[in-house]
Amino acid sequence: MSENDILQSLRNAALASIHEAKNSAQLDSIETQYLGRKGEITSQLRRIGSLPAEERKDFGQAVNDAKEAVDAAITARREALVSVEADAKFVDEAIDVTMPGRLWHTGRSHILVDTLQRIKEIFIGMGYEFVETPEIEDYKSNFEALNYPEEHPALDEQMSFYITDDTLLRTHTTAFQHQVMSNRKPPMRVATLGKCYRSDAVDATHSHTFHQVDCFTIDRGISMADLKGTIHQFAVEMFGREVNVRFRPDFFPFVEPGAEFSVTCIICGGDGCNVCKGSGFLELGGAGLIHPNILTAHGFDPEEYSGFAFGFGIERMPMLMYGIRDLRLFMENDMRFLRQL
Ligand SMILES: [Zn+2]
């Protein structure tokens, strides 16, 4: 192969790899390979000395031509690659403004917390002071001080969670009366709300843990009329102006007389449906005038003072309002359920 043929094939090989270079780093190494100080084309110049004198001028010219051609090809390819690389970078960093955003779920209060808060606001608006008493109560506060006779079925150990012989998880929020009455003097208008516990088998309508609200008032001249007015006002604020309240005689050891109270069915508006079993009313809770035995036991003269007390369960309200059929859903924290409310 003649010197010119070797040069020609180097020149072709260089141009071919320049054409195929994918990025400027590859182009840099091609440049070094052919045009660097020890590059393959640059090295051809050193061979001039070994050529016959008449060939030297032409060969020198040919090497310079090759160098210029390769150099020009590299410059052209580099410019082309700059814009290709910029395009690639642009694609990499591009923001797709049509892509749907990530859905963030904001936290909010539990439906029971909302209900408790609403109830609390209504009674605070009526002048009640909310107090907290322990969920672990002694036997006296939970039963004895509330005038329960010793043979009352609620005292059965099977129905309550006893911790020791004398302490148990409160079975109703009414247990707060004893503590409050022991530390205050009339007039008083006090309320509490929170968890209660009973040893019940869990199913769609029963739970070992549930929530109650309890309120009582002691003052001079308190009568059933005050009780009815208070519950009616609460029902109007909770369920709306159209609601009626119905009282029917009932027995609770801590009140005399005692009553259960119902409100107009919020499902049918009083016309009668299967939720209210055709009666048009839904039973809400128990109420009555505080038993004279309880007033006396706490040092309040029943001739001078009287009072009323009432309490009701919480879970029933959101169950009716939202058509929730299973009590267990409130405690299970299943997001599929909670997000619907
Ligand atoms: Zn109804």
Name the hetero compounds present. Answer: zinc ion
Compressed to H and E, one letter per element, the order equals HHHHEEHEHEEHEEEHEHHH
Tell me what the CATH architecture of the largest domain is.
2-Layer Sandwich
Give average pLDDT, whole number. 89
In a nutshell, what does this entry contain?
The protein is an alpha+beta fold and 341 residues long. The protein has helices at residues 3-20, 24-35, 53-92, 111-125, 139-142, 176-183, 224-239, 292-297, 316-322, 329-332, 335-338, and strands at 129-130, 136-138, 167-169, 188-197, 209-219, 245-249, 255-264, 281-290, 306-313.
What is the secondary structure topology, with strand pairs?
Layout: H1 3-20, H2 24-35, H3 53-92, H4 111-125, E1 129-130, E2 136-138, H5 139-142, E3 167-169, H6 176-183, E4 188-197, E5 209-219, H7 224-239, E6 245-249, E7 255-264, E8 281-290, H8 292-297, E9 306-313, H9 316-322, H10 329-332, H11 335-338
Parallel strand pairs: 1-4
Antiparallel strand pairs: 2-3, 4-5, 5-9, 6-7, 7-8, 8-9
Helix pairs in contact: 1-3, 2-3
The chain binds zinc ion.
